């Protein structure tokens, strides 16, 4: 038996229960890990609310870090005693220990702590694919990134700086603006005080940007399109304000033959070779000091409901972890 968070219905933070669950031996292709920390991400809210459906009862949480205790038949890339980290399905990271598919696990360098790994795997791999694969930044570009003071945003600020990219970031307060700037964001826009479309046009001399990275969704979608230069790309990778409503493709043509994509990390890491390559680049950026992972909130696993409330009310900044 082990302690874990389970939901038997979808809804608000109160549906999460801290319970004892059976811990089976790992089957073929699986591994049992004892978790030292697990990450908190907005995708967890989507699963909790039923936006992303799953069979109930179910676990929550998409990333964690710990030590391998046992492996099933056919698992060769890790062994008991290895330090590992992961970001991936199936949900269930909110637990003291868990059995999961071994192919989502990567070995963790000694220089990176369990807490740092749990705080960065999903968010860091997200920035990796956004900047290096979905719209590959070469350096010299000016980009717009929404929610620049969030967990993904602060990693993006630092990665953009390392690449020589000028990042414009939207934030919800002056305090968050200072935080984003301290991490490498060149221009910040407080969307509660300023019109972000007008400011982007002002910053870029009316040209717009070649790419917008938008995790907000409904509230920012049209404005994000309006910030793009002709032939630009809107990368819509989340919907914190709600899903983007249906729109006419003519909206893209009328604004200059724009592109829109709705990527998911899990497609990018579906192949083992891709996961290894992406994780290696992320680990290298952290080990070099170019990216520092700011864990600004820590909660006991049993207090996960409060963690979700704080996340949804945008009280959190940087990364948040849960400690079993």
From TrEMBL:
Enoyl reductase (ER) domain: residues covered: 11-322
SUPFAM superfamilies listed in its UniProt record: GroES-like (SSF50129), NAD(P)-binding Rossmann-fold domains (SSF51735)
Entry keyword Oxidoreductase: yes
Gene3D superfamilies in the cross-refs: Medium-chain alcohol dehydrogenases, catalytic domain (3.90.180.10), NAD(P)-binding Rossmann-like Domain (3.40.50.720)
Domain of life: Bacteria
Classification via CDD domains: QOR2 (cd05286)
Protein name, per record: Quinone oxidoreductase family protein
